[in-house]
Amino acid sequence: MTQLDERDGVESTEQAIAAASRGSAAYRADPHPVYARLRESAPVCRLSPPHGVETYLITRYDDAKAALTDPRISKDMYAAMDAYHTIFGDSSIALDDNMLFSDPPKHTRLRRIVNSAFSPRRIESLRPRIQEIADELLGNCSTSVPIDLLSSFAFPLPLIVICELLGIPEGERADMQKWCAVVARTGFSKEDKEKLALAEGALREYFVDLIARRRREPTDDLLGALIRTQDEQGAMTDGELLSTLWVLLFAGHKTTAYLIGNAVFNLLTHRDQLQAVLADPELLPNAIEEIIRYEGSVENATFRHALEDITLRDTTIPKGSLVQVSVASANRDPERFASPDTFDVRRKGLQSSHLGFGSGPHYCLGAPLARMEMRIAVTTLFERFPAIDLAVSPDEAEWLKVPFPAFRGLERLPVALEPSRLPLR
Ligand code: HEM
Questions:
Q1: What is the residue with the minimal CA distance to atom 4 of ligand 1?
Q2: Most exposed: 59, 266, 273, 290, by fewest CB within 10 Å?
Q3: Exposure of 397 by Cβ count < 10 A (0-12 exposed, 13-18 middle, 19+ buried)?
Q4: 222 lines ligand 1 (CB under 6 A)
Q5: Which residue has the CA at smallest separation from atom 43 of ligand 1?
Q6: Is 210 inside a domain boundary?
């Protein structure tokens, strides 16, 4: 047995491929040993996932970065309708007619419209409000019993921010959050697909109604700006507008929420690193980049598919197959990052190198907002509660069990904000 085998129980490449194909419990709890094995011996490997569509997983950094910019590896869902139907059914199409599921020139057109409304000035103007929301949420948390930091802080913070940015009224957010949760968590069984269709139908109806209301009574928020651009320039169909609203909402909150959880968990389980950041707050931006590299909230980039036969290393990805790029694996590639399994908030040259926000044309449009939210969330939490600690042992942390890994995050994060105030056990 090699050192890798003893530590991880991933004894062969076949076992690693099987674990990644079916999303085994051990792999979901800690995918890194599987990725280490695959990078070593099957860097472009064929999976047999539960959705039944032939899929190739790319795990090395150089290959991942190249794949994310390779025009032969498409994001246009209309060019892969059979696979798309098999995996998601019909109901997702109306929500996914956006930049994330398209290639140039459509991608360029849709991204440009959102970029013009999502200006640095608009993002910077959110800073005081994000601080206020963070203060309010933490002010409402109990300090005399353990709390779940995910549901009381990490999730509501980015959700409120993106809803306010888009102009989704407060009273309408709870239902939406419920539907989003279904969309993020469903598997591939017939029953799952029915649930998915219901949630997506409800979201679609809600967005159609919201857009109609905003047309009647224009607003100054991001949705108002998108509608104005659409009306003035005719640059987006109604379907594209609806789907754009959806991608901003969905991409804009789950990713950040899980990342806040991963950040707090990893800082609390690497006390020397936390102390370094507390002693020198200027380290915080780099610490956040390191968290995104070490335990980012996006494990695999979204689906892509091969427009032609593509040979990568010794493997030919046949035309029409799905391609999954594991950014979590790429970010732990020892060929790119020295001691990649070490969490080091002082690591150099991170911002331009990790793939946690993707790379190439689909590079995360919300990265500046996500970075701002992360900095405010982490600083506010540790300044207000310097003694915060986990309320469970780190081994009891429950990582998301969704069979097909898109997100990497915790189910819950039990913490004691002020451990000295808890009743003695
Ligand atoms: C820490 C939080 C975040 C992470 C880790 C993250 C990660 C990513 C990644 C990896 C991609 C590329 C997906 C691919 O190529 O398949 C992406 C794309 C995208 N992200 Fe983020 N994201 C975050 C926050 C946000 C926020 C706050 C927003 C919006 C408000 C946002 C909006 C988008 C959009 C619209 C795209 C699609 C861009 C395109 O297709 O051109 N993201 N994100």
A1: 255
A2: 266
A3: middle
A4: no
A5: 364
A6: yes
